[in-house]
Structure formats: structure tokens, C-alpha cells
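User: My advisor, Dr. K., asked me to get a structural model of this assembly before our group meeting. I'm new to this, so sorry if the format is off. These are the inputs:
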Amino acid sequence: MKLYRNLSISQKQVVWAWTFLALPVLFYVVIRFYPTLNAIVLSFQDWNLLGARTWVGLENYDRLIHDPVFWKVFKNTFIYLILGTPLSLLASFTIAYHLDKIRFLHGTLRALYFLPFLTSTVAMAWVWRWFYQPVPIGLFNNFIASMGFQQIAFLNSTTNALPAILLPAIWAGLGFQIIIFMAGLRAIPISYYEAARIDGVSSWTILREITVPLLKPTIVFLVVFSSISFLRIFDQVFNMTTNNPGGPLDSTKPLVLMIYQTAFTSYDMGYAAAQTVVLFSILLVVSLLQLRIMRDR
Amino acid sequence: MKAITTLALCASSALGTLFAAGSASAVEIEYWQYIFDARITAMDTLIANFEAANPGITVKQSTFPYADYRTKVAAAIPAGQGPDVVQLFYGWLNDYVAADLIQPLPTDVFPVERIEAEFFPMVQAMKIDGNYMALPTAVRSLALFYNTKLFAEAGITAPPATLDEMVSIAEKLTKKDGAGNITVEGITSGMTAQDHQWLREVLFRQFGAVPYTDDYRTVTYNTPEGAAALEFYTSLEQTMGVTSSTFMDEPQAAFKAGRAGMHIDGSFRIGALKDTRGLEWAVAELPAGPTGVQSNYASYWVNAITSKATGEKYDAAVKFMDYITSDEAMQVWLETVGELPAKPSAALTDANIADPVYGPFIKGLGYSHATIFADETGQRQVLVDAVSRIFLENQSPADALAIAAAAEQTLLDAYYAK
Amino acid sequence: MADSQIRASAAALMNAPTSAKPRRDPAAIIRWTLLAMGAIVMVMPIVYMLSASFKYPYEMYNLNIIPKEPTAENYAYVLSDGRFYRWFINSFIIATCTTVSAVFFDALVGYALCKFRFRGRYIIFIAILSTLMIPTEMLVIPWYLMSRSLGWLDTYWGIMFPGMMTAFGTFLMKQFFETVPDDFLEAARIDGLNEFQIWWSVALPLVTPALSALAIFVFLGNWTAFIWPLIVTNSQELYTLPVGLTTFSVEQTVDWELIMTGAALATIPTLIVFLVFQRYIIHGIAMAGLKG
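Assistant: The format is fine. Below is the predicted structure of the whole assembly, which you can bring to the meeting.
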């Protein structure tokens, strides 16, 4: 105890920090880092899950860069990111910003926006797949046909299928983003708004000069986390294309689905691990870049 | 409700197992299969019979969801967890054998000559290095389901015997709305369902191609005859307009909803169709090809003893294997699950052949082929993609097939190189 | 507190003093109407899910929302399956335990990474964040082998342990602790509180909204977790609800009306958790402000 009292304030902070972190660090090392290292090692091996592991050097990586499916999947994954993140953040911020200003049935509306996030992905994927079907059963195509237009092949198309799957993915995550934005909006001290109102500035200026800058921690979180989510998109794609996972000619297949199939339908664990290492590297680079760019401008 | 009684049965048998396990010196072995009500019920019956005949041995049945059964088994068995006797799809067996996770069937109880004399020849795929590694209780084949109500409305009295008849009947059954969109299909189609098997083992052969060499390690369907078979298949949708592969999401859904006249599917579909209200249907053999060739695709699930079973558990597992591959077990399986016995002596009885539902499937077994897959999913995907390229990228059937053959050969070479 | 920062939203500010008589501002009406329409669009797929759960199979693909021949048979079937309750309870216990643990530890770690100055802070943050970047599918086999050697297979703890702390929550809490002014903590330090007390009784109440949001997300994440619970359990008595619901899809066929029914029933507890916690996302701030 005496020892502790003799420490400087910053030394005490270090002691407290490690007290707080001891158990969690142990947890992450054993439960997360160890299996991750395991995957990295596995990427240099050949293993079908059943037999012994054999070392193959860089063979898995070599195979990956010569695999046309991988490049297709690589491109798809980035399309999910580049379309998904900005569209969903823009939509959720707009909704959260306005939802924050209304009072009548506020809780009900917020709950309705959040509801999709609460519902089973498997069930929702089926409903969306049903919506996208051609006539006579598809909702969208029935509507289009009743207007006298030609049907649209949503899912059975190499060009339309990816956006058709992105839409439900954005839809499902919107409620989550709205809630985070609203929690962030409500964390902005009211005094800033009071000052601005006294100065008589427009609500557009308030939004730009006060709300957005003060929302930065929230925005950083959502940009980084949504980017990770879109780069890791799997559930919607897998469940909406169960009969032909990844859509016709791999047109919707993202990297995680490729990893899943390599691991659990081909049982090519080493190859799946190499793909995982690539995914990990992409995610790490993208996240670090985003954190750097958004750090205290 | 059938399922509820099944549940009750499961629960009571589970309890029974629990108490039995408590009694002294009983050997307990574990059996795994996937969840399918009728299969679980059938296995419960078999276990009850087996336990009655073999006091001192108890069998615990564990079941897992079908979609993830393979992953579950692959995670558990190498870790030394799980079953002593396991049910596996025949196409997966090689991997398990290569990894020494399956023990060969002892030749004193299962002499090779006896197996080859009694079982359908397709089980020879289970013979590795002269030993049989696993045996099925039941086998399955394809047949043509047809909607008798739609047939009667169109004035058609008999199911098609040939592909030509099938096409002309399909044309009569197809209904379209004003904009030309199909509202009732003549015949269902969908490569991701059973059509890839139909194409691979039936249509190719009927058009004069041989899909693979006998050991299934070399692709040989990339010929003009093979292309003709693929062209016939895709023309059903593209030029004849009697089907649409995207219609109602899944072929079986269209047939179940009464919006399809004909539907090619496996014997495992019988149960689901029997439970469908308002659907009147019958079964026929697959139509014969242009030169009268009949062919069928057969597949099966096998039972195998894992390397986990040793000592008295191994002995118990052998006894259990012997029982569940007996004629008696096959009859129980046929009556409860509707899957066809794996021995001609049990399958090709007069009563079975005359059965209006099982008959066509059983007759199909006589001229069926069981593809030896290296990677069933991958090999399926190759043909699925070929058809996608024809439909979505206007590739010619010959080109699509050439690409498919090369891709499938790469898969096979990579697999057998190990 | 110096300027007694009662935190509240811009909305509260704009409405609070004058809200006795709500103004019928046309812009506000348009805003409300658009939001309401958006909300209806958002829930349409869920309405269809509910509708399908009251239909017979033959009517499944009909687009009418009200079934021609409504039936509760699907619910009777799912609920008559005795295992359903068991799965439901399993999921509830597992989701609740992991939520309590994850909220506690994520807030603890997020706070330490945000408010303490020490060497290696950024590295630890990035290392924890990086655990979000490996798909679960690649982790389940090492976890399985680990669980086997530790005897955790087929136990509640085996299902739960990977979720006891989350990188997602740590990141979320770190970001929200950044909005807590350091002066507050300094004042508490001068009052003689130790760092744990400061975290517990000063910092945590200030981020109640984020804690509530986190609780909802973690609960939901565990409620819907599929692949790991499937791999680690052998006995159906230990299945979680999502694993149990897959027993309705059999070989080559999926009984979609039963999946819809199961999904509708499975949404009820998550909805309750959401409704309970969402109040704190809004009201938490004002209370925290008063305490501070």
C-alpha cells in the first residue's frame, strides 16, 4: 500500500489501467488471439479437418492470387463496402436527426425503425427473396407487371443481384445505426445549442458547426464498425441465395462466404485460412486508415 | 400430428436410454444421424428391436439439423468426440477413410463376397483397398412426379414414357398470362435442386454421352452428344418455354403449390408431398431418351463404425451394424421412411414393384448410376454455372459444357492428387 | 458542477419550454409524415413474416397480407414441440449472462483505453479491434478443440465463453467515454474516490444511453448466434433457439411457415429487451446529468 502511495499520479494511472485490463487481456489472448494465430499458421498448411496437417509453404496464397473466383469476390466485397457504408450512414443519420426532433409517437416510430434489426435474418432473407421473385409470386415484379412494364430479374442476374442483396443488408442494419446516432445526438451538451440559439444562427449552421463536430466519436465508431460489417457481409448473402450460395456465377459472393464455403463445404481449411488472413489484412488496413483520417482533424 | 408422436417417442426412448445406462455393466454406443422425423422414428424402432435382442447393449441416438450435419460430424469425429456408429453421405466417405476415422467392416461378419452378392452393385463405391468401409440401409433414386389434377384438366391420361412425350405434355400443361409470363409450369426446372443429377447421370447417357470414366476420375461428357443433352435441357426454358428455373423460387415449391405439371425429384420428397393438402399427384419412371435408353441417379447414406469405437464398444458397434443392414431393418426403413432397401432381394419384391409410389423408384434402381463424387458441392456448382452462363451470358451449350468439363476435371485432379 | 451541464437533446431544448402548446408547424408535419411513411416501409417485410406465420403452406406465396384462411396451426405446432420452450429458456439464459458480462467488461476496458494514459494503449485498442476482423467460422475449430480439452463441450459455459467480452462493445464504450469531460473525473478524484469508484459511480452513469444500446446489441447478438452454439452442443436439450429452429428445415425442404412462426416468436423477447432498454437511451441522460 505504501508502495502505491509513493507512485506519481501518472504511475498510479498505469497501475489502475492494468488492473482494469488484466482479466480482459488474458481473455482476448486466449479466446481470440490464439485462434487467430492458429488461422495464420494454418494458412501455410493443408488440412481437410479430418486428417493431419501438412506444411505447404505459400501454396495457398499462390493459389489464391491465381483464382479468378477470388478476384471476383474481392471486387464484390469492396462494392458492398463502397455502396453500403455511405448509403446506410447517410440514411440512418438523416432519419436519426429528424427522429430526434419529433415528439408525437417518438418511441413507437423509433421502435418500428429498429424492428428489422431485431428479427431473424433467416426469416427476413426468405421474405426478401420472396419479394424479389418473378410473377406470379414476387411483390416487386407483380407491381412492375401491373404497371405494364417488363419484369426485372432481381436475383437471377449477374448485374442486379448484388444491389438486390445489399438493400436488405442496409435495411437490417439501419435500426442499429439510428440508435447509435440518437444516443450520440443526445450526448451533446445542451449548452452548446443554447449558445447557438442566442446567436441566432440557422439550424443548418447548427448542424454543420455543432452537431456534426460533436458527434465525431459516434461517427468514427459507425464508419469504422459499418465498414467492418460490410466487408464481413455474410448472413444476408448466404440466406438469400441458399440454393446457389453467392448468386449466379458468383455475382454476389463476398469474401466471408467464400471462406465459409472453402472451410465448410470443401473442408479446405488451409485455403480458407489464407483467405481469412487476406480478409484480416484488408480490414485492418481499412480500419487503421479510417481511424487515422478521422483522428482530431 | 405425426411429428408429435415422433417427439413423444424420442423423449421416451431418450429417457429409456438414460435409465438403461444406469444399470450395471451395459455397453452404450452412440449413433448419429441427421434430423428427419421419419428417420428418427425408424431408427428408434430399430434400436428398440436391437436392444431387445442384445441385452447389455444400449444405443443412444443423437440427431443434428440436416443443413449443418456434415460440419458437426467433421468437427466432432476428428476430435474423438461423438458417435461410435455414424451415418454419412456416401460421397463423404473417402475423406473419412483417408483420415483413418472409419474402421473397415470386419470380414468375419461382413464377408466381401456376401456383400457383393446381396447388395446393389452401387455399394461397391464403399470398397476401399479390398475392404468394405460402410454399408447403407436404404438407397434412393429419382422419378417423375406429376400432378394428376392438371393432367386430367388437359385431357392427358398417361405420364410420359419418353422425353419427346414429356415435352409435348409439358407444352399442353404450361399456362401463361397476357404478358407471356408463366403462371403454371409444364415441368419444373432448377439446376440447384435435382436437375444437375438428372443431367449428369440421365440426360448425358440418354443422348449418347458417357459422363465419366468408370472410376469417376475423368470427365468424358464434353462431346457433341453431351452438348446435345445440355442443349435439350436449356431449350426447355429458352425455346420451348415450358419451364422457368426461377419460377416460385424452388422447383418443389412450384409443384407443391399445384403450379407445375411435372417435377423430377428423389424418393425423399414423397413424405413432404403426402402431407400437402389439396395436391393430387402420382409417380412415374423417368422418361426414356431418344434412343430408348433408361437411366437414373441413385445415392445413399451409409452407416460406418468410427475409430472411436474400441474394445467392447467395437463389438457392440459391429453387432449393431449387422442389424441395421439386415433385411428386417431395410423393411422397417422402407415402411417408416419410404426409402428403398439396399438389397435387390428386399427391394425387388413383387409387392414393392407394384406399389404405385415406390414402384417407379425401385424400377429406376435397376438401371441407376451412383456418381462417385470427389466434391459433390463443387461438382454441382460446375454444372449450375454452365447453365447460368447459357441463360445469363448467352453462351452456347457446347462452350458452356467445355468450360464445365475443364473446371470439373481440375477439381477431380486436385482431389485425387492428394 | 461548474455549469451544471444537464445534457439533453436539441429536441428537448426546442420543445421543452414551449411544448405546453405544440405548434402545428407545417415543416414539422411533413417531417413526421415522412418519418412515419419510412417506418411503415421498414416494417413491411416483418408484416409479411407475421402474415406468413398464420398461413397454411398452400397459401404461403400469396401476396395478400390477411390470409384467406388464417390458422394458428403453425403456432400450435411450434409451441406443442416441448423442446421449443427449452431452447427459448437456453437462449434467454445464455443471452442474459453474456450481456451482463460483456456490458461490464466492455465498459471497463473502453474506459481504461479512453481515460488512462499509459504506454501500449493504442496497440491494445487496435489489437482488441482486430478481433472483429476474423470471421467466427475460422475460430470455431480452435474453440472446439479448446473446449474439448477443458471439458466445456455441451455445457452452457461452453456456449457462452466466446461472448463474455466483445470488441464491438469495447470500441463503442471507448467512443462514448470520450464525450465525458475529464473535469468530472478530476473532481471525483479530489473528493477521494479511487479509480474503480470513479468509473462505477461517476463515469458509467454518464454513458447510460450507450450502455443501454450495448446491452440491446449484445443480447441480440447472442440471441441470434448460430454457428458456435451448433458446434459446441451435442444434446438437443442444450440447443439455443436459432439452432433449434433449423430442425424445421429437413433434407431438401424447408417448412417456411414454421420458420416464420419460430422467427416471430423469437422476436418477442428481443423486442421486450429493446423496449425496456430504449427508455434509458433517452431518459438516462437527464438523470445522469442531475447526479453529476
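One thing worth pointing out at the meeting: The domain at 142-297+374-417 of chain B is CATH 3.40.190.10 (D-Maltodextrin-Binding Protein; domain 2).

User: Perfect, thanks a lot.
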